Amino acid sequence: MISEKLTPTDTKIILNALGIDANGKAWQTIKSPLREENDASFGLNVETGAWKDHATGETGDVITLIERINHLETKQAVDWLKKHVDLGDTLHKATANGKVKKIEPFWNEYRKEFIKMGMKRIDKEPGHRLLTIAKEYDCLELATLQKFGCGIVEKWGADYLALPYATGCQLYRREGEKIIKSVKGSTPGASFFGIKQLAGRDTLYIAKSPRETMLLNQLFSESADVVGLCTGEQGNISKKQFEALRNEISASKYSHIYIFLDCDTEAALKTALSFESEVRKVTGNG
Description:
- The structure is a single chain.
- By secondary structure, the protein is α+β, with helices and mostly antiparallel strands.
- The protein has nine helices and twelve strands.
- It has helices at residues 8-17, 62-70, 74-84, 109-124, 129-138, 142-147, 210-220, 239-252, 266-283; strands spanning 27-30, 42-45, 51-53, 59-60, 151-155, 158-165, 168-175, 177-182, 192-193, 203-207, 224-229, 256-260.
- Strands 1-2-3-4 form a four-stranded antiparallel sheet. The protein has a four-stranded antiparallel sheet with strand order 5-6-7-8. A four-stranded mixed sheet has the order 9-11-10-12, sandwiched between helices.
- Helix 2 packs across helix 3 (74-84) and helix 8 packs across helix 9.
- The longest helix has 18 residues, at 266-283.
């Protein structure tokens, strides 16, 4: 059944979209969303979508709840659900003749709600272990994470810091060592992290990752703009990154551009020099 594929986060997103406050855990008793009543008699599991109307004896799952609230047939209810949650279907599909179908934007309604809920968790859980680690290991302040629209999200049975950018979302946590993953469908080569925060100052700093971007922003927020690569250290810039960076640089007329990349090994130095060459091409100083 399709309802069995839903995570607790998926279910809460669906319930919120139906106009039901889905905060809290497991079973709750609320006023019925199916009829008017003065006293709450509707049992709802906000993690699975299972429900029971104690006044009428009716029971159901999240699909039947969508059917009843939106007055839909089952197939229509399933289609409505798929518009609000991501069930893992790929966004890049080739047709039989080799052509590629139109690619949907990464930030669909489901993912927008996903990161919004993650941002709320940062506000509500300032003592969360992930935030403590971000402070201790990366020197990242809570206000900085909030400024860049980061959130705490649950994926694969664990909490991660979600670091959003224009065409995707990077997930970060530490379990003895650094763990970095990307949300399925992310295309990091198509954008930079933090480009929305550029304010057209005199100096631009380019960092090698989202975490370095936020750290540099903390250090130089009053004197320089900071933008970063979406996935670690790279030696090249994609066409879309080239165009985005060129547009920002030409519009803001930066007089100084600095690149921050690790050069502690021969391979890292080679990557840094290659990336510097790419940026020079963007600025016209190749």
